[in-house]
Amino acid sequence: xxxxxxxxxxxxxxxxxxGVVEVLRSGMLAQGAVVERFEELCREMxxxxxxxxxxxxxxxxxxxxxxxxLAPGDEVVTSPFTFAATLNAILEAGAVARFxxxxxxxxxxxxxxxxxVTSERTRVIMPVHLYGQxxxxxxxxxxxxxxxxxxxxxxxxxxGATYRDRPVGTxxxxxxxxxxxxxxxxxxxxxxxxDDDALAERMRILRNQGMRARYEYVVPGHNxxxxxxxxxxxxxxxxxxxxxxxxxxxxxxxxxxxLAGIDGLELPATLPGRGHVWHQYTVRVTDEARRTRDEVVAxxxxxxxxxxxxxPSAVYDYDCYRDHPLVxxxxxxxxxxxxxxxxxxxxxxxxxxxxxxxxxVAGVREILA
Length: 369
Ligand SMILES: *Cc1c(COP(=O)(O)O)cnc(C)c1O
What we know:
The chain is 36% helix and 15% strand. It is α/β, with parallel strands linked by helices and 369 residues long. The chain has an eight-stranded mixed sheet, with helices on both faces. The protein has a three-stranded antiparallel sheet with strand order 7-6-13, with no helix packed on it. Helix 3 crosses helix 6 (197-207). The protein is globular and about 65 Å long. 49% of the residues are buried. The mean pLDDT is 97. Pyridoxal-5'-phosphate binds at residues 56-58, 82-83, 85-86, 128, 154, 156-157, 177, 179, 190.
């Protein structure tokens, strides 16, 4: 069955194509002036002093951790309710992964649970700004400061999100993704933003084979570079970011208004002091609902409405992680596991028409009300 209202829609406006073709004609396809322009736009988006472009959001997380030069046994505490990339990056950096369970209001780390999973071995706290809403950064940052730990924000889904009017991306190191379905996209791409001069310099070196100046290798590095070709896809989108966010906010308001009051359907909220950019509009189908979450997904897709499950389980809840020597599950994270059974994301993107929204609302009401 063809999805009539897809959960995400990637559109490249005609005027954006010229910039990409220009790169093709220039003969300079790899990292160059367009990547520099992309980095400048990422600095403007976050207010950070530095932006280091890399080839994916996952790479941005990995190079952030590498720049912090963790030692064996050092621990990174993150959210159990996230995309696998968050955990994969920690393991690739050779650190121990531990989890502080999440809250159901912002889907981010519950700061009150950090004490139970942090210690003098905690070198990094890695909050995830899930679905486009910032995690509760004040208490998370206070805990990090007390421990002398760094913060690496997983901001893959949160371009332009704010916390007390401060854009995400400046609490330490922050990784953004420009994967095709993110709010801003380059097909594949990523960036790390930071105010720290030394860490930014180290990431630029790690990105380029560990080379400080031509053939001057100072550390074994990697090829993490972004291409001008990909950067050219993303560059024109920054100017449209505020209208994209405004459209997503309007769509969220329609759902908040028209999906309220259905038994067993918990709607997402923007918490006070947060600027939500609505990467996803994620509801919870609880036990009080007439149908299970999986039944709702199936019934929506029969109606041609794309519904996504992000994510179907806690991130550690797969054999390859459960039995991994660097993954510490401790007592488990019951809230994340429960969310895995109940969450469901409805289409929220900026290309939805009023008719599309009405169809989604009618579909959900028919299935659950
Ligand atoms: C998409 C995503 C990533 C990884 O980004 P890629 O660009 O796909 O490598 C990491 N964390 C979260 C929460 C994501 O949604």
